[in-house]
Amino acid sequence: MRDRSQNSDLLLERLMESTGDCEIENQTKWIEVQNELKQRLIAADDFTWKLPKHESEAAADGNDEKKEVLKYVGGVDVSYCKDDPSLACAALVVLILPTLQVVHQEYSLVRLGVPYIPGFLAFREAPVLLQLLEKVKANSPHFYPQQLIFVDGNGILHPQGFGLACHLGVLADCPTIGIGKNLHHVDGLTLNNVKQLLGAKPDLNLVTLTGSSGIIWGAALRSSPRSMRPMFISTGHRISLDTAITIVQMICRYRIPEPIRQADIRSREYLQKHRHVC
DNA sequence: GCGACAG
DNA sequence: ATCTTGTCGC
């Protein structure tokens, strides 16, 4: 048991350490890392909290009266500088339910050496995001979003079934939900495909993303009457798709979930205001 | 071979 | 991701 875990850690360490110079070798290595981390992925609800209840349903539930209620939700995003693509600002915000007010925020202005390559976003963004999580855990543990983190990027809706939200969730050991603002084409999924399904009925705003192989990769959701554009929901870590969809729907003020929207807005602001110090 | 490809 | 003003509508 422990041997297996240690071997796994050693392999990961070996794979993670090298900052190679050959693109194809790197990508091969990155895929090994993704497959290794994927073995630790939990694809079902695995947490102790429960969703906030409405009065109507609050009546009979003698069982989980002791369970804590989902209270703090984290959101992470990274913004980039227009004229200096290596300069970026990572943000972590923590919102409190049910008011969705931001109660904590953390920023990091960094230079990223790893380029963006479709399918490997995590190797560019995850390190700085994990650093922000560590900062909160050390300095403001009360606000550490251990219950749930929203990630700007996909979960299992990914060529290897292991996108940024999964990557971050496994390494931080927190439940995560991945939100894509654009569709990553995987297993035959296309935007026209989704549009067709959604367009069929005007009041149908949620469709399951089933690939050509029959695998369910996530869901497309039109959350706001003001925008016809759907978002793409996929599970990250320690949560089921059904639960993820339910929470997304209760946490949207605009097109995308409020934690991600806030992280997006604030990381951009912070970058504009502090880019001169780099 | 060509095109597609989260942020 | 980012480049970018106005504009149509509630």
From TrEMBL:
Q: Which GO terms describe its molecular function?
A: RNA endonuclease activity producing 5'-phosphomonoesters, hydrolytic mechanism; single-stranded RNA binding
Instruction: Answer yes or no on keyword Protein transport.
Output: no
GO BP annotations, alphabetical order: DNA repair
Q: Where does this polypeptide localize?
A: Cytoplasm
GO cellular component terms, A-Z: cytoplasm; nucleolus
What the entry lists under Pfam families is as follows: Endonuclease_5 (PF04493)
Name assigned to this protein: Endonuclease V
Query: Per the UniProt entry, what species is this protein from, by scientific name?
Result: Trapa incisa
